[in-house]
Amino acid sequence: MEISPLTILLVLAFGGTALTFVAGRSARFVALGTAIATLVVTLGLLAMFSLSELLSYQFLQVNTWFTFMGAPGSPGLSIDYAVGIDGISLPFLLLSAVITVATVIYHWGEEKNPAGFFGLLLLTNAGLLGVFVSLDILLFFVFWEVVLIPMFFLIGHWGGPRRQYAALKFFVYTHVASVVMLVSLLAMVFLGHWPSFDFTDMTAVQGYNASIPEVAQVFLFGGLLFGFGVKLPMVPFHTWLPDAHVEAPTGGSVFLAALLLKMGGYGLIRLAFPLLSLGREALTPLVFFFAFLSIVWGAYLSLSQRDLKRLVAYSSINHMGVVLLAIGLWTQLGVMAAVLLMFAHGLVSGLLFMISGSVHHSFGTRDIPSVGGMTSRTPILSTMLMVGSLASLGLPALVSFPAEFSAFLATWESLRYLVFLPLMALVVTAAFYIWMMQRLSFGPPHGIPADAKDLPLPEMMGMVILVALIVLYGILPFLLVHIITVSPIFGACYPGGGGVCPGLP
Amino acid sequence: MTPETLLMAVLLGIAVVTALLALLAREVVHTIIWIGGFFVTLSAIYFVLYAAFLGVLQLAVYAGAVTILLLFAVMVIKKRIFVREAGAGVGPVPILLALALGAVLVALAAGVPGGTAYSAYDVTALSANLFTRNGAWLLLLGLVMLSALAGSIHLAREMRGAPSPPRGGVP
Amino acid sequence: MIPFDDILAGSGILFAVGTFGVLTRRNFILLLISVEIIMNTAILNFIAFSAYAPGPSILGVTGQAVAVVLVGLAATEVAVGLAIVLALNRVRGSVDVAKAMDLKL
Amino acid sequence: MAFVLIGLLGTRLKNGGGLWAVVAEGLALVWGLYVALSEMGAPLPYHDVSFVWFGLPNGTNFAMGTLVSPLGALMLLVVNGVGLLVVVYSLEYMGHEEGLPRYYAELMLFLTAMNALVLADNYLEFVLFWELVGVCSYLLIGFFWKKPEAAAAAKKAFLVTRVGDVMFFIGIFVFFTAFAGVVDPHAVLYPGTSCPGASVGGGLPWACAGFTFTTPNANSATTFLPAGIVAQNANPWLMGFGGVMILGGAVGKSAQFPLHPWLPDAMEGPTTVSALIHAATMVAAGIYLLAITAIFLGFTEITSLIILAIGGFTSFFAGTMGVVAPDIKRVIAYSTISQLGYMAMAVGASSLVSDVSGTFVGPGAAMFHLFTHAFFKALLFLAAGSVIHVVGTQDLFKMGGLRKYMPVTATTMLVGALALSGIPPFSGFFSKDDLLGLTYAAAQADAVAWPFFALALLAVFLTALYIFRLVFLAFSGDRYRGAPPSAPHPGAAGTHPPTDPHEPSWIMRGPLVILAALSVAAGFLPLLPAFRGLLPGLSWGLFGFTYTGSGWIFSTPDLVISAISLGLALLGLTTAWRLWGNGRVYALPAAGPLPRIHGVLLHRYYIDDAYDAFGRSVILGIARGFAWIDRYVIDGTIHGFEEVFSGISTRGRKLQTGLVSNYASWVILGLVVLVAFFLFVVPHLSGILGGG
């Protein structure tokens, strides 16, 4: 049996998690070791990833786990352990590994039951890695659930004053979504008469699904859109997000914003859009509607927030709205932009939530009007805030810019004048960040406690890692774009790739 | 009606009757006797279906071990453990439910056509299958048994420090 | 010629009998016995279907193999169940399930 | 050559003091001169380096590269020349401020971004550095971040230009689709340039065509112009729309009429920064954009007219506000807006003219004015800065009689003022003359342009009026009106209480003198054939005599226009002298319309207030409304569900008797129902769901 590096990655991640749970006082060292090991393996994957293997998944490993015997004569249905990656999942793996390292470093001084805390963080990370590498629907779902459970405990145990409420809300929302998603996925498998749950061969699976009538496809697509959309989150299924973010500990917020939201977008790109073409065509206007709603809603709500974390949380809704829009266009430029934007948003929102956490540590509050002029007392934190905000509003030379530009260009290509809507929201986005900075960073200092300290070293290190990547990929985006476009979804669209694009127009 | 059909009908009838008697008996010892009979009857059915190994297994494990185990448990408890069921305790709902379930299951079975049982599965074929293709299940069963063993021991040990039971509180 | 519908119908009735026992008996040992009856009907079905499968086939042997596993499982279950009976008896001095209403909210 | 840019960036990172910045900027200027000289020798654009920034399987590539063009070379001269002088000037002017490394770092980033913008070879790269320039200006305007006004001004600058940027984005999108991906403005300005260095980067399509957005189907720059015109004919509405959107970007950056309010407020930044923003970097970027895209904008007449109208109106409109502003820097700021209006007007006019004559004159006149304006505007700002540095206030009415204390500053300021008002032989005269002549030609081509031509002429009068008001109020007379030692203007750059006003050191005076000399000399540069190569379609005239490169042509209308504008300028000058000269301070009459007009002008036509009110009530109102809905409607619905479910479960928990048998009953019931369902209902369902 050939062992894929991805299996090694998963074993490493889960094994490290288990070790962390039992490590007790030295949990943070084990956690950091695990996170770095995961990152190293991911970087190894990055190095070994072939840019010329366009039509199939790489590092593929498929083992039949077990098979449901069908009636005599029918092929039965097998559940596989199927893992593999392409250019769309690799950035997410990288993001996940990097964010984990940065978060562990950021939380180096965690006092409250560190073994549990780091263990849960790593478990989330392991589950995320699993989601991004699994190519079998049931495996995908199992990992999906693995991600959600530890997050529930992170919010519920390490969170803020209303953590019980937030944790429960998070749990209920995401599980309702999970159930709908699972039902839709299973129905897709059964109605399409798939021979197994794995979807390693996209063309074949599209062939199976072609036999599903349009009505059923519309329902299935709608179910998946809801299931992944809650995670994304798209308005009006978003209200779990601000509460969860505000109450979660900093690391939890970082994971939520930087990684968990990406699962939704990833699911849409990997499962809903390519596999259910009839449903997609029927429901695309609905997708656009939700996307525009999310963009505008997120932008305006950010403008009205007083709490820094809530502001960042709502800005996430805005950005993920752009992601949904870009996915909904379902063109090469759009999908590339969506993946790039999710990567960018992962780094940037992670940074911003770390900053929010540090603001809370330093000033004892995150209420924007009650703190001001923090540049004079905490210049480093203030600089970080500025970098994060500017990155989030799409400053060139930082990673969001090429992504947003591509997304809007793709929108123009498909939707023409409708692009005004998100672009006008872009002005509002700029407005709330700039306004927030004006109130928090500039002006004469006020509301700063006497013992306010600038960033401690671990927190700064965590942020510096993210800033470095934001700048690196902002200046050299092709490092990532070259990878993203190596995917079966894009594959045959290359010149000489077979001529027929199975995935994208 | 072929002899086989007749034989099968008789065996099934005996099985149903012994099972009912086991549940309705007044003394727990009688229950155990009837259930032993039920197990033996099932073993006979397995033989008729050419599953000889299963029949032997049934005899050894169920008719032998399980029955003795039950008897042993009764002896350990050393009480008149058979609680007389008051007539009022059995409402119409459970009976109706059981009847409905039976009806549904029989209806489910009604559509199945008959067929010829294949007689050539000997122990070799069975073990070959069991230790290769379905080895994982056997392994899993081993694990389950191991944990059950541990659980049983734990259950027995746990009670040592527990408050002593209210003796004599039983009718 | 084996009448499979008869076997299935018979096992269905046996299942119903076992269910009846589970629903009405309050003695833990009798409950255990009822569950065993149900378990046995399942095994019976596996064997019946394995016999029903045409020819020497993988399906046929697998049915019997599963039945073997199930017999082991059922035996284990009895062992654990009886351990529970003993524990219950020691704690409560009774094996009446109606008195062990810990599941009530 | 990109090497130098990287060198600049490197310096930016490690520099702690201004000297590094001076050295870096000096190198940049030398390099700019080299580029400009080589361009003068061979006035055609050429590519230097480029690479794919990112690309897609379907062949859409987004490239980054440098492209050296004559206009770009001219801009390099301006940016780095002014930049060097400003940096030198800063050595003393900013010497006492906190956060100097930050200042120099931001300044160098600003100049780097501007250099890169000038060298950009496609719109994506252009917009990238365009945004970077915007952010740097945000940081620099907000340099005195402890002052709430500075922070607010920085915010305003960023947001207002952001509105323009959004329109610019759309404009780029339009061109990207309309021209099938090839958008290289230079290829249009200089037709005949073909695909240099096609082998760079392995012969990919983008290596040709100017490293632009390219698609596999359209990779030839030489056929671009006809293709563009075809596209225009196919969809004039789209082309016009795109042109207006591009214009929107330029309007935001160059502070033209609807989006102008940020520029006066930007005076909260250090004076050196103001000089840089106004003369060479930020606002010039907008005009440069208009100049290199003039051909696209000229595709539709209406776009050209809009540009002309906005420019002409702004030049007048800003001038009126400049006449009343009490703040020395704000007066100069309004003059910038006004002069930028002239440039925009010239771009619009040149497109109109080319429509008629069939040849494209190009935006040479606008760029020439940008060139001369850069020097005298930097001069004015730096001179004003040295005044502020010494007297510690920006209020004109607290100055006066400064000539005898600081003669060098006074003289150079006077040179700048004369150049700005367009009085020969100072450079402003020649460039402004070109603009007005071009606008006159446009007005003949299209009668709609007449009122704006008239407004532009009026603006000439206003220009002279307000700039000499400034000069006279500050320097003339015997009396120093400031109450020494007055409390320094809060936060004004480099203030120390003026017990005895005196000239600053030569580090500050040197740049003033150099700029003054340039302000004179720049006007005559077009006489050099090499320089004319940098500015396509530029003509140089003196009272009706136009130099064509080979000889002189006389035309009466040109003479008339020159005479009128000179007369208006002199009129403005004398009016200013009558009102404010020699220590006089003109007092408004108590009655009549004048005080009211004065009030309106002082409040900047209430436009700023209107924007503020719009932002505060409408935008924030929408935000609060959405927040309310989010909280009570959406979350309320969810909580409603919660109520329902908890009601059900309160009742449902009564079913939990705790008796195992009862639980089992439910299980069995469920089983029965399920089996019955599959047995009797499902067979009928399968037809509906299509198999399964």
Give a short overview.
The complex is a heterotetramer of chains A (505), B (171), C (105) and D (692). With 505 residues, chain A is mainly α.
Could you please describe the fold and organization of this structure?
- The complex is a heterotetramer of chains A (505), B (171), C (105) and D (692).
- Helices cover 70% and strands 4% of the residues of chain A.
- Chain A is mostly helical.
- Chain A has one domain.
- The two termini of chain A are 37 Å apart.
- Chain B folds into two domains: 1-81, NADH-ubiquinone/plastoquinone oxidoreductase chain 6, subunit NuoJ (Four Helix Bundle (Hemerythrin (Met), subunit A), Up-down Bundle), CATH 1.20.120; 120-158.
- Chain B has six helices and no strands.
- In chain B, helix 2 packs antiparallel against helix 3 (52-77).
- The longest helix of chain B has 26 residues, at 52-77.
- The model of chain B is unreliable at 162-171 (pLDDT under 50).
- The chains are: A mainly alpha (505), B mainly alpha (171), C mainly alpha (105), D mainly alpha (692).
- Chain B binds chain D through residues 93-94, 97-98, 100-101, 104-105, 107-108, and chain D through 661, 665, 668-669, 671-672, 675-676, 679.
Strand elements of chain A, count: 2
Strand content of chain A: under 5%
The residue fraction in helices of chain A comes out at 55-70%
Oligomer: heterotetramer
Average pLDDT, all residues of chain D: 73
Shape of chain A: globular
The stretches of 5 or more residues of chain A where confidence is low (pLDDT under 50) are none
Count of helix runs of chain A? 19
Give the biggest beta sheet of chain A.
2 strands, antiparallel
Q: How many domain units of chain A?
A: 1
The rounded distance between the terminal residues' Cα atoms of chain D is 67 Å
Mean pLDDT of chain A: 87
- The structural class of chain A is mainly alpha
Please describe the biggest sheet of chain D, giving its number of strands, its sense, and whether it closes into a barrel.
3 strands, antiparallel
Order of helices and strands of chain D: HHEEHHHHHHHHHHHHHHHHHHHEEEHHHH
Write out the strand line-up for the largest beta sheet of chain A, numbering strands in chain order: 1-2
Largest interface: B-C, 96 and 80 residues
Helix content of chain D: 55-70%
What's the total number of strands of chain D?
5
Task: Sum up the structure in keywords.
heterotetramer, C: 105 residues, mainly alpha, Helix Hairpins, 3 helices, 77% helix, D: 692 residues, three-stranded antiparallel beta sheet, two-stranded antiparallel sheet, 25 helices
